Amino acid sequence: MIEDREDAIRRLVPLVRRIARRIIRLVPGADLDDLIGDGCVGLIRAVDVFDPTLGPSLEQYARKIALGAMLNGVRRLDPVSERVRRVIRVVERERYALAVEAGALPTYGEMEARYPTLVRARTDAHRGSPLSLDAPLPPESGAVPSGGEDPADTVIANAEQRRIRAAIDALPQRQRAVVVAHYFAGQPLRALSDEMRVSPQRVSQLHVAAIERMRRTLTPA
Questions:
Q1: Labelling 113: which of 68, 87, 196, 212 has CA 20 to 30 A away?
Q2: Which residue from 183, 179, 139 is spatially nearest to 158, judged by alpha carbons?
Q3: Do residues 83 and 49 share a domain?
Q4: Dihedral sign, CA of 174, 175, 180, 183?
Q5: What range does the domain containing 216 cover?
């Protein structure tokens, strides 16, 4: 029985390595050896408790347990708790749903009034997020930008953003809702037809009309 157990573990170790290499592509900050180690712990647990009468094969079961062990290891690397991440995810989904209904994206101040726990969650997430010396500081940090960027470029970029926001605000409500949901919330146009209770063709027409209207607004005469 011991030999069968060891043979099964040895046979499935390459599966753990494949899963770990896939995760490392999605989470570059993770360590491959640590992922394989966590996955092997999950693999051993899977082999020890596997019951062939329940349906799935040992490989299918071990894949699920090893993957779960690796993801738990990745979560331990995150200084921000899963509870905080969950609060932010829920509020973000609600924020973009409101944007589709109202045609304008609510500010974080408005969302914090609806969800008081968001204030603490955003603070904890900001404190737990590491800063990169190679990336610009987040806008909420309150730090004064370094002199590395040309101030003229910054002014031009800010002015262009204001022009685009003004063009979006000037759109009719349904066109604005499509633009906000598609370009800011990342929702596919086809998915908007159910939320807006119109056909996919109508969503496409609203999208084209919005882009044309914005192009006319933003193109110099």
A1: 196
A2: 139
A3: no
A4: positive
A5: 150-221
